[in-house]
Design goal:
Strand content of chain A: 5-15%
CATH superfamily of chain A: Winged helix-like DNA-binding domain superfamily/Winged helix DNA-binding domain
CATH topology of chain A: Arc Repressor Mutant, subunit A
Radius of gyration of chain A: 18 Å
Number of domains of chain A: 1
Number of helices of chain A: 6
CATH architecture of chain A: Orthogonal Bundle
Largest sheet of chain A: 2 strands, antiparallel
Strand order of the largest sheet of chain A: 1-2
Order of helices and strands of chain A: HHHEEHHH
Number of strands of chain A: 2
Structural class of chain A: mainly alpha
Distance between the termini of chain A: 26 Å
Bound molecules: FE2/S2 (inorganic) cluster
Oligomer: homodimer
Chain lengths: 134, 134
DNA sequence: TACTAATGCAACCGCAAAAGTTACAGATGA
DNA sequence: TCATCTGTAACTTTTGCGGTTGCATTAGTA
């Protein structure tokens, strides 16, 4: 696959599921479709399951399906479920040598934070159903 | 450093320069301040120079300074200068097995593209001067 | 002219994150 | 009882990126 694959994989998979929300799909099917492998799929979808976006069923004839209606799943739900931060720094205390202008440093961080929030808000305005829709 | 370091480094550096726009700073000074090394700094700032945001002067007593007034440099300028794409896939033809639903695939990509554009637009609303400002 | 100090750039190293892979336990329907 | 699917852990492979070294070039300065 490529970079940023997790969000991309999640979105593509959910979009497919949006048509035929009741049909169960195995991680193997999904992996074939997405050009990756079942374990990677289960890793990503597992996060979506923990976030309550998907339901998985074990055993024979098991698989994955949407936990809600497509119109009730926003891109922000997906983004947040993956727990990545694309804009803001994944802060690790990063102490700068910038002691005198420490205020400036925090200022930069907070601006980045605002941008991140804005992104999430924007993502919240589109649902999976709309992605599929048109 | 950490993840997303290029945008972060660029923003911090420009913010510092916004106070004292005429003073020349060497990549070495900047590296010390940012906790990295001169070559990395020159790599990142080089992109900003190509984008016309910075001017570098070679030779003895050379260094870096802003090419424009801080209020005329937006975060979008910086983001675009670095030529990264945080949301949209850095498309590499990624041919999906998704032949039947090819339209859906493109749809997903275009949604991601819209989000990316929205991000850039948001970044365009803040200038370096404002970051420093307050 | 010689010396010093800076950028610009290419080539490489090393690390860490992420994908890919293998293996297997547990669950569940046939 | 068997086949099939999830859940997870452990391991390997790939890759992006910061870090490092080296050196040509440029430009002040003595
Ligand atoms: S390191 Fe000085 S502002 Fe961030
Ligand atoms: S792979 Fe099917 S929509 Fe992208």
């Amino acid at each position: 696959m490529k970079r940023n694959s997790r969000l991309s994989l999640a979105l593509h998979t959910l979009s497919h599921m949006a048509g035929g929300p009741d049909r169960l799909r195995t991680s193997s099917d999904i992996a074939d479709h997405a050009g990756t492998n079942p374990v990677v799929v289960r890793r990503v979808l597992g996060k979506l399951r923990k976030a309550g976006l998907l339901i998985s069923e074990k055993g024979h004839a098991g698989g994955w399906r949407l936990a809600r209606q497509p119109q009730d799943i926003t891109l922000a739900d997906v983004y947040l479920a993956l727990d990545e931060r694309m804009v803001a720094t994944q802060e690790k205390s990063e102490a700068p040598a910038c002691s005198v202008e420490h205020a400036l440093h925090k200022r930069v961080s907070s601006v980045l934070e605002e941008i991140e929030e804005n992104l999430v808000q924007r993502l919240g305005e589109t649902s999976i159903a709309e992605v599929r829709g048109a």
